[in-house]
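Support request from a user on the community tier.

User writes: "When I paste my structure tokens into the form, the page sometimes reloads and wipes my input. The last time it worked, I copied everything first. Here is what I submitted, just in case something in the input itself triggers the reload:"
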């Protein structure tokens, strides 16, 4: 089995979260393989920018997920191990990258995003990350609009 070490972002702007619709019509979070010489944090920031056109900063690490699938192009099973980062966007501008087969995307209210997101572990990740995001702002006496 091929193992791919990846990182991605759970990106918030105010009270909305970034999700993208891929070529399989799945609603997902931005992520990608960590290339040699890159840190997980750098990859997460880069993938959010490349896949969604969103500039964001990392607030904290929120955990890891792992899933397996069969790759038709590679003709073998693949395991994706993903380190996720809680991120905050500088604006809600979003431009899904059609060259990477993202047809839709943007910042959605949490409940709407949870209805759209395809995979249950991504839904759990968004729920947990949103709680941390609110705690982060509460500690700073900041109000999320």
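"...and here is what came back when it finally went through:"
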């Amino acid at each position: 089995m091929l193992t791919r070490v990846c990182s991605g972002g759970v990106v918030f702007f105010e009270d909305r979260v970034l999700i993208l619709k891929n070529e399989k019509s799945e609603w997902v979070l931005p992520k990608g393989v960590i290339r040699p010489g890159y840190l997980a944090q750098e990859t997460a920031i880069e993938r959010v920018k490349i896949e969604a056109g969103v500039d964001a900063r990392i607030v904290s690490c929120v955990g890891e997920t792992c899933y397996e699938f069969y790759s038709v192009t590679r003709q073998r099973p693949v395991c994706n191990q993903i380190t996720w980062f809680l991120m905050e966007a500088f604006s809600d501008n979003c431009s899904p990258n059609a060259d990477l087969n993202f047809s839709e995307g943007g910042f959605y209210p949490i409940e709407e995003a949870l209805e759209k997101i395809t995979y249950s572990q991504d839904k759990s990740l968004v729920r947990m990350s949103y709680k941390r995001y609110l705690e982060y702002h509460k500690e700073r006496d900041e109000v999320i609009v």
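Agent notes: The reload is a front-end session timeout and is unrelated to the input. The chain is about 30% helix and 40% strand. The CA atoms of residues 13 and 21 lie 18 Å apart. Escalated to web team.
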